[in-house]
Design goal:
Blueprint (H helix, E strand, L loop, with lengths): L1 H27 L3 H27 L20 H28 L3 H31 L3 H12 L11
């Protein structure tokens, strides 16, 4: 279980790195609101990683951090393609987290299973959010005012640490 959790920890940090790369690309394409939104997503993913890091620490596990693979967006991606790419990534994260939850259940590791349920619930929200944004972009298509409006709306996102209970 420790090895699998360390693997997920590194996936969470890589996820943050992916969103930082997408933020940089969105800014270079003039979508500053989307860039801010993805930067906020980067912050959120970092908190996800740190929640897992602290759990491993509390369990007395040895933490192993790996190199983070470079991430760059290929040129000529539309803004909707960026969000579709991000949704695909979130779906992969969901699969990995479900697999970890299954493993914890099989090993009767109740503490880890409880932790994984937080991540599973978070993933439901993440996928729904990306889906809603993609739908908005598809509705406006290439309409400049529509794209501007959505970009402006996304730029209003403020980071709220999801690991802190309200």
């Amino acid at each position: 279980m420790q090895k699998a959790l360390n693997g997920q920890l590194n996936k969470e940090f890589h996820s943050a790195y992916i969103y930082l790369g997408i933020a940089a690309y969105a800014a270079s394409e003039g979508f500053n609101g989307c860039a801010k939104w993805f930067h906020t997503q980067y912050q959120e993913e970092t908190t996800h990683a740190m929640k897992l890091y602290r759990y491993l620490e509390d369990q007395g596990a040895q933490i192993k951090l790996h190199d983070i693979e470079a991430f760059n967006v290929k040129n000529d991606k539309s803004i909707v393609e960026l969000f579709e790419m991000a949704l695909e990534h979130e779906q992969l994260m969901t699969k990995w987290l479900n697999d970890l939850s299954d493993m914890a259940m099989q090993e009767k590791d109740h503490a880890t299973y409880k932790l994984m349920q937080w991540y599973v619930d978070e993933q439901v929200e993440e996928e729904a959010l990306f889906g809603e944004i993609i739908d908005k972009f598809k509705i406006v298509g290439s309409d400049g005012y529509g794209l501007y409006s959505i970009d402006k709306e996304l730029g209003a996102r403020v980071f709220v640490d999801p690991t802190v209970e309200a």
